[in-house]
Design a protein that fits this description.
With 513 residues, the protein is mostly helical. 67% of the residues lie in helices and 6% in strands.
């Protein structure tokens, strides 16, 4: 489903680009889009995770907003639809989405008022009304939730971001972060390797190189304004709006500066390239002879084609060996689901097959229980009545709340060091223990673990040493951990740890309480 959305959005972006300026603009946007897709990597663009899913929709809203400001009022509906998807999917797109919608709607309204031709005035008003209607429908669930529930989602968001638990990074740090995203050397180095998402993690990228790109773009703005080039000015306005709103939005980040909070900024550098290159063409056409113009156009065409071919080739090569997102976690879960199903069917540990009610719990040493949700899902798909305690009612929904005392038996999922803990619990029947790592990967994990513990000791972060074995992801979350150690944590998370499942009588939990 995520792939289908991505392909559809890419087709929409290229269609709008052709409406904007014919084949030349479409090819330029195609080259930048291929570079983005290749740089993000298929893991990002196929994973149904809310910080990733709006990426291409933001590109669509950006290009559609450009078209609206260039005079194509019909694209206002696309702006509203794409921006709404982004805003409702992840909070980091909210400010950008509201801003581009507000500017586009205001522009079309102004256009309808000043139009001298009746046909233009009528079409602008029709598109404006349709866009407002579409927006009202798309946002109605949000406002109904706010009216009908206490507290509503909007109220919770306001409280969370108006009074953050930690200090926000502020405008100065946000400016540095934005400039790092404009480092096109870093961008094109990442293209073809799926490394833009890694490169986007603070503090990668050079603010100085980003500032250079910004200066070149500002120079291109001067060219566009002096030439009164409407389509180029429209592009510059959308870039400027995105830069400003993105800067304000980024300044409100608090806690760890996760790379996915500003992934949208990766779009701005390539769009600046289009604006800069276009301004070079404008200068060539106005100030050089025909021969020089042809040379400039051929050079730009060759560079555009080379970028597109390189990015596309890299994408095809990576696609040939691509796996589903979080493949190692999926395979680890797959290895324990079958034995768990058979154990429940055979009444192991007090279970009673599909006639029973089961509460799934987890002690996860490294991925905060994400596989636990998958285990609930898979057992439900197999026809079992399963859920989890009220603690997890939000992700699992209130309809799957099953407390341990109300269950026929408890399905206990455990990873890493928690396996030894559950091995020692009387009454807990181990169904399966699985470790998909090779001997070399186990040795690598153990070596990294010792290195990380030694590093934390040297850094004075003794409070995190115990977390290495019981909450490795918590170590990754801690902003005090330097990048060098973060890379070790990331590799350990990638390697994984053993996984086990136990069937436990509810009385065991009653005794613990």
């Amino acid at each position: 489903a995520t792939c289908v959305l991505a392909i559809g959005v890419c087709a929409g972006i290229l269609t709008i680009a052709r409406r904007l300026g014919g084949m030349r603009v479409e090819y330029g946007v195609l080259a930048m889009l291929l570079a983005l897709v290749s740089g993000f990597g298929l893991g990002v663009l196929t994973q149904p995770w809310n910080p990733y899913m709006p990426l291409l929709f933001w590109c669509l809203a950006f290009v559609a907003g450009w078209a609206v400001l260039a005079g194509d009022s019909a694209m206002l509906v696309v702006v509203v639809g794409a921006a709404t998807f982004g805003a409702q999917t992840h909070i980091s797109y909210l400010t950008l989405s509201i801003g581009i919608c507000a500017v586009a709607i205001t522009f079309v309204a102004w256009q309808s008022l000043r139009a001298t031709e009746p046909s233009t005035r009528t079409s602008s008003r029709r598109h404006l009304l349709i866009a407002i209607g579409v927006g009202a429908v798309l946002w109605s669930p949000v406002f109904l939730d706010q009216v009908l529930r206490t507290p509503g989602n909007l109220s919770m968001l306001k409280e969370h971001f108006a009074s953050p638990a930690e200090t926000v990074i502020g405008l100065r740090t946000a400016a540095s972060l934005m400039l790092r995203h404009l480092d096109l050397v870093h961008f094109f180095t990442g293209t073809g390797s799926g490394d833009i998402t890694v490169a986007a993690e603070w503090p990668a990228g050079s603010p100085l190189l980003g500032l250079t790109v910004l200066a070149l773009w500002l120079a291109s703005v001067v060219v566009a304004v002096r030439a009164r080039h409407r389509r180029l000015i429209a592009l510059d306005v959308v870039i400027a709006l995105s830069l400003f709103l993105g800067w304000i939005s980024a300044s409100r980040i608090f806690g760890k500066i996760w790379f996915y909070l500003t992934l949208w900024a990766s779009v701005l550098g390539p769009m600046m390239v289009i604006a800069i290159v276009w301004s070079v063409v404008v200068i060539a056409r106005r100030r050089t002879d025909q021969r020089t113009q042809q040379t400039v156009l051929r050079t730009i065409t060759v560079l555009t084609a080379a970028t597109a071919i390189f990015a596309f080739t890299s994408l095809v090569v990576s696609a040939a060996g691509s796996k589903p997102p979080e493949f190692r976690l999926s395979e680890s879960l797959r290895s324990v689901v079958g034995p768990t199903v058979r154990a429940l069917e055979n009444d192991v540990g007090g279970s009673t097959g599909r006639d029973g009610t089961y509460s799934v719990l987890w002690n996860d040493a490294y991925f905060f229980g994400s596989q636990g949700y998958g285990l609930v899902n898979e057992l439900e798909r197999q026809g079992f009545d399963v859920g989890s305690p009220n603690t997890w009612r939000v992700p699992l929904t209130k309809y799957r709340v099953i407390e341990t005392q109300d269950a026929t038996a408890v399905v206990q999922f455990a990873t890493g060091s928690y396996i030894a803990k559950w091995d020692a619990v009387d009454g807990a029947v181990k169904v399966i223990e699985s470790d998909l790592r090779t001997p070399a990967e186990i040795a690598e994990f153990d070596s990294l673990r010792l290195e990380l513990i030694a590093d934390l000791e040297k850094l004075g972060l003794q409070d995190l040493i115990d977390e290495v074995d019981v909450n490795l992801f918590g170590v990754q979350l801690d902003p005090r951990v330097p990048n060098a150690q973060q890379r070790k944590v990331n590799r350990m998370l990638d390697l994984g740890q053993p996984t086990a499942v136990y069937i436990v009588p509810p009385t065991v939990f009653a005794q613990q309480e």
